Amino acid sequence: MKKVYVFLAEGFEEVEALTPVDVFRRGGVEVKTVSITDSLEVKGAHGVVVLADTTLGAADCSDADLLLLPGGMPGAANLNNCSPLKQLLARHHGKGGKLAAICAAPLVFGGLGLLRGRRATCYPGFEKYLEGATYTHELCTKDGNITTGEGPAASFLFAYTLLEELTDRATVDAIAEGMMYKHLMVTK
After folding, report:
1. Any bridge partners for residue 67, and if so which?
2. In whole angstroms, what is the distance from residue 165 CA to residue 185 CA?
3. How many CA atoms lie within 13 Å of 22's alpha carbon, on the beta-carbon side?
4. Using an 8 Å Cβ cutoff, are 50 and 57 in contact?
5. Quick one: pLDDT band at residue 185, thresholds 50, 70, 90?
6. pLDDT digits (tens, 9 = 90+) for 146-159
7. Predicted pLDDT of residue 181
8. Where are the beta strands (DSSP E) in 9-85?
9. At CB < 8 A and 24+ separation, what contacts does 152-155 make?
10. Residue among 70, 55, 74 nearest 11 (CA)
């Protein structure tokens, strides 16, 4: 079974974090939500409090297939200020692991130099932080082992794109149909 870790910082965008968690779990992917603080309770940008599965200090992410960063402000800035998280992302990327970020959160990858020579998207206005990347302004952009999403409206497309990487097209189609999303999907 594939395994995903979704990192939550105070001020995260709730829909960008919880949509992928829901879609992945429906698709049979094991997901762990990880608070980057010492508290399991993390308050989102719109006041929704989520109880994370674990904390960054307690998590062993060595078995990760994908590390995911939801956006939101100040959530993305808080992720970017977390040195242990940035070290984990760099290590995972260094061994070819999959990374994903949406909305403002791709700024973390940009600051680490992980987007140089790649195509990437983000919330409009944050493209200046995608150091060395070609900004696509797409809802979802996949380039190699890094997938980026534009913002809250891209949450389902972002989640389904990642689910297909982790499973297969048949799983995505079945989950999308069950969630009444399939009629919106763009044919590839």
Report:
1. 5, 99
2. 16
3. 14
4. no
5. low
6. 999 999 999 999 99
7. 87
8. 30-35, 41-43, 49-51, 54-55, 66-69
9. 152/13, 152/15, 152/16, 152/103, 154/102, 155/15, 155/16, 155/19, 155/20, 155/102
10. 74
Pairing label, strands 134-135, 119-120:
parallel
The two structure tokens encoding residue 99: 């990374």
Output the pTM of the full model: 0.95
84-118 pLDDT, tens digit each? 999 999 999 999 999 999 999 999 999 999 999 99
Q: Give per-residue pLDDT as tens, 122-135.
A: 999 999 999 999 99
- Spatial separation of the C-alpha atoms in residues 81 and 60, rounded to whole Å: 20
Residues 120 and 109: beta-carbon distance below 8 Å: yes
Q: In terms of residues, how long is the chain? A: 188
Tell me the β-bridge partners of 3.
30
Radius of gyration of the chain, Cα coordinates, nearest whole angstrom: 15
- For helices 155-166 and 14-26, what crossing angle results, to 10°? 40
